[in-house]
Amino acid sequence: MMEEKLWQWSVFRSLLAIIQWWGFNVTVIIMNKWIFQKLDFKFPLSVSCVHFICSAIGAYLMIKVLKLKPLIAVDPEDRWRRIFPMSFVFCINIVLGNVSLRYIPVSFMQTIKSFTPATTVILQWLVWRKYFDLRIWFSLVPIVGGILLTSVTELSFNMFGFCAALFGCLATSTKTILAESLLHGYKFDSINTVYYMAPFATMILAIPAMLLEGNGVLEWLHTHQSVCSSLIIIFSSGVMAFCLNFSIFYVIHSTTAVTFNVAGNLKVAVAVLVSWLIFRNPISGLNAVGCAITLVGCTFYGYVRHMLSQQPSGTPQTPRTPRNRIELLPLVNDKIDDKV
């Protein structure tokens, strides 16, 4: 009886974690798109700066004031040698995501983001000379095919937004790969990651934002109607961005890897549906099919990655993988991609 109650509580906790994660994630995406499209605040660097500032303040409150998470100590030298380079890539990743939202629909942007597993595997193979099981390569086929179909049939296609989203995938992959070496020895959770990286990211982005968007922001403040309510929405998106980080921490500790993979892909479907209901961007039948193929491909990729990780260390590798090289599972993790 007690075991049954514990199991029911575990299921309820997992569902609650997934639902609140979906809620914060979709809210941040929709609010950002609303800021760019409805409020006519077309300044992605400034929006990213607001997110970094709010996240830095939130992480400080969580760790230093409320003490809800213990601080993971980092040597001062490592902050500049390890954390700063990660923060730079982290900053580029977030900025490119917001830039892409400025120019393309949420549905298209979210589908392109699903290309991250492929870019991570390819980068590790080309640059770091890592070898993978053939099943990993085959599992990427539907992802690539779905992205191609979605891109060709996108009715609101914008080359600049498409390139920003695609380079955002490369930045995400680079950040994930670098984390293995630069953050080796530090077991960061999402809150500590933001605590250390958000201040650096703000410092990196503040000057470019002022130089490139400062005059435009001042003009918007003088000409836009309902400035106060619009600023509340903009800063609320920053607060939601931090809440998303906290929700990631919660969902990591409440679900299994397989559940998280499936929930992550369903989250993209929810974001696409909600954005279409709000913004009514045109979506063709083939475009929807391409998006569905991509999401199914991501789920299949996650399943293959999980199955390979469960194999005993002595399991024979494929003939194309030399036995003296250890097969490396891709480092893609949606838990990292959603931050800020």
UniProtKB/TrEMBL annotation:
<dbReference type="GO" id="GO:0016020">
    <property type="term" value="C:membrane"/>
</dbReference>
<feature type="transmembrane region" description="Helical">
    <location>
        <begin position="258"/>
        <end position="279"/>
    </location>
</feature>
<keyword id="KW-0813">Transport</keyword>
<feature type="transmembrane region" description="Helical">
    <location>
        <begin position="12"/>
        <end position="31"/>
    </location>
</feature>
<keyword id="KW-0762">Sugar transport</keyword>
<keyword id="KW-0472">Membrane</keyword>
<feature type="domain" description="Sugar phosphate transporter">
    <location>
        <begin position="15"/>
        <end position="301"/>
    </location>
</feature>
<dbReference type="Pfam" id="PF03151">
    <property type="entry name" value="TPT"/>
</dbReference>
<dbReference type="InterPro" id="IPR004853">
    <property type="entry name" value="Sugar_P_trans_dom"/>
</dbReference>
<feature type="transmembrane region" description="Helical">
    <location>
        <begin position="134"/>
        <end position="153"/>
    </location>
</feature>
<comment type="similarity">
    <text>Belongs to the TPT transporter family. TPT (TC 2.A.7.9) subfamily.</text>
</comment>
<dbReference type="InterPro" id="IPR050186">
    <property type="entry name" value="TPT_transporter"/>
</dbReference>
<dbReference type="GO" id="GO:0015780">
    <property type="term" value="P:nucleotide-sugar transmembrane transport"/>
</dbReference>
<feature type="transmembrane region" description="Helical">
    <location>
        <begin position="43"/>
        <end position="63"/>
    </location>
</feature>
<keyword id="KW-1133">Transmembrane helix</keyword>
<protein>
    <recommendedName>
        <fullName>Sugar phosphate transporter domain-containing protein</fullName>
    </recommendedName>
</protein>
<dbReference type="InterPro" id="IPR037185">
    <property type="entry name" value="EmrE-like"/>
</dbReference>
<feature type="transmembrane region" description="Helical">
    <location>
        <begin position="194"/>
        <end position="211"/>
    </location>
</feature>
<feature type="transmembrane region" description="Helical">
    <location>
        <begin position="83"/>
        <end position="104"/>
    </location>
</feature>
<feature type="transmembrane region" description="Helical">
    <location>
        <begin position="159"/>
        <end position="182"/>
    </location>
</feature>
<keyword id="KW-0812">Transmembrane</keyword>
<feature type="transmembrane region" description="Helical">
    <location>
        <begin position="231"/>
        <end position="251"/>
    </location>
</feature>
<feature type="transmembrane region" description="Helical">
    <location>
        <begin position="285"/>
        <end position="304"/>
    </location>
</feature>
